[in-house]
Write a structure and sequence with these properties.
The structure is a homodimer of 155-residue chains. Chain A has five helices and three strands, in the order βαααββαα. Chain A is mainly α and 155 residues long. The structure holds a DNA duplex (30 and 30 nucleotides).
Chain lengths: 155, 155
DNA sequence: CTAAAATAGGACCGCGCTGGTACTATTTAA
DNA sequence: TTAAATAGTACCAGCGCGGTCCTATTTTAG
C-alpha cells in the first residue's frame, strides 16, 4: 500500500489542534494535546519536538509553557507538516536522494514515478492546515482537463 | 514518508516488461523477467503469482511456460497493479476498511484525508501501464484550476 | 514415457524500522 | 524554591517487509 507513518499522521492531527475553536488561546501543552487527541503522551511529546525543531511550532518552556503555531495556519501546508516530521516525500525508495538503486539503468518507470511523486506533493502542498478542518474545495483534490470517466474505485 | 512497498514497486516494473520492444513475444518466464530487471528471482516469482491471482497476468505452466498480460496494457491502470500486489490504497491506517480507530470521533482531519486519498487514487487510476513507458502527458499529473503558484518543492 | 522446465502455494526467517517508553537536564512561572 | 513544562536522547519490543526455500503440480520436448 501507499501508507504514511503514524508519526506523519499524528503530526497533522496535532497541528490542527491549534486552530480549533476551543484552543483559541494558542498555547497548548503536550499534556493538553494528548488528552484532546487521545494519543499517548510520550508520542505526542516526540512529535511536537520534531515539529518545533523544523520551525512549524514555537515552544515555551517552563511552567505553564507549551507550543503554538509559528505562523498563520493558512501559510502552513500539509506537505510541510509531513516533511517536517519524517523527511522528504518519496513514494519509491529510488526517489530518496540518498539511495542508490542498482536497477536504475534498466528501470523503465523511474522517470514517471518521479513525476507522479511531484503530483502528489503538489496536492499536499496546495492544501493548508486551515483547509484541513473544513470540506476541501474540489479543485484542490481533482485532476485537470484529462479526467472524463468515473474512476474505477468510485463505482 | 509516504512510501509504497517494494512489492508494489516490483509489481509495476515487472508489468511494464511485457510491453518492451524486446519482449514482443508476450510470454515471459519468471527467470527471464528476473534477469531483465536484475531483481532476485524468488521475489519476482512471488510478485508474479500475486499478479496472476488478481487476474492481471495469465500464467502458462509447464516447460516453456511463463506469464503474459491478461489484457491490453492501455486497459491496465497503475492503481490496479498496486492494488493487486498489496491491497487497497490507504494513505492512513484509518482509511483501511478493516481498521478501527479510537480517535475517529475526535479526529478533525479524517474526512479530508479520505478525499486526498481519492485524489491520489484518481491520479494512479488515470495512468495506464502503457503510459508509464513514455513521458506522461501533463494533464495526468497536474491539478486543475486551482494551481497558480509554483509549489515550494520546485524552487 | 520420461525428464526437465515451468508455475502454485506454501512455510519460514532475519532484521530493521516503527511505534512507543523512560530518564535526565534545563528552563521558567508561581 | 518548587513544580511544571520542554529538550534531548537512549532504549526497547514486536512485527512487518523483503527475501528464501521446498514440495506439488503441470506441461512440453525428446
Amino acid at each position: 500500500m501507499i501508507r504514511m507513518s503514524k508519526f506523519a499522521d499524528y503530526g497533522l492531527v496535532l497541528m490542527t489542534q491549534f486552530l480549533r475553536a476551543s484552543s483559541a488561546e494558542e498555547n497548548l501543552s503536550a499534556r493538553e494535546l494528548a488528552s484532546q487527541t487521545r494519543l499517548p503522551l510520550p508520542m505526542v511529546s516526540k512529535v511536537l519536538k520534531a515539529l518545533t525543531r523544523e520551525g512549524l511550532l514555537v515552544s515555551h518552556r517552563g511552567a505553564s509553557g507549551g507550543y503554538s503555531l509559528s505562523r498563520s495556519p493558512a501559510k502552513i501546508s500539509v506537505a510541510e507538516v509531513l516533511t517536517a516530521v519524517e523527511g522528504p516525500i518519496a513514494m519509491t525508495e529510488c526517489l530518496d536522494s540518498t539511495s542508490v538503486c542498482k536497477q536504475e539503468s534498466v528501470c523503465p518507470v523511474r522517470t514517471n514515478w518521479e513525476r507522479i511523486n511531484f503530483a502528489v506533493q503538489d496536492v499536499l502542498d496546495a492544501i493548508s492546515l486551515a483547509d484541513m478542518l473544513e470540506p476541501l474545495p474540489d479543485h484542490l483534490v481533482t485532476l485537470g482537463v484529462g479526467e472524463t470517466e468515473t474512476p474505477s474505485h468510485r463505482q
